[in-house]
Design brief:
Helix content is about 0%, strand content about 60%. The strands form two sheets. Strands 2, 4, 5, 6, 9, 10 and 11 form a seven-stranded mixed β-sheet that branches. About 30% of the residues are buried. By secondary structure, the chain is an all-beta fold.
Length: about 120
Amino acid sequence: QVQLVESGGGLVLPGGSLRLSCVASGSISGVYTMRWYRQAPGKQRELVADITYGGSIQYGDSVKGRFAASRDNAKDTVYLQMTNLKPDDTAVYYCNADVRPQGGTRSENYWGQGTQVTVSS
């Protein structure tokens, strides 16, 4: 069983910072592209960042210049450093990854359970 688990969410003041983590675990052969999405109530799920195994990154327009994704392939972990947070950043943040399970021939897409980020004064 492959599992993605996010951590690091919480309540923060506008202008503050948070660092999210997501670790992939279980019966894994390889972890490829990893992504961060977010979804606020009443809004469509939005891509925040996409990072390939080699570290190439694409960001959503709304977070460019404020958020930074990174990964540690030895730990099967992806991070999201969020700075200058705004109330509009309030959302559930989800980890997503393309993972090849042990014994599998193709990668499959997995989701984490999400972690709540609330930006409020």
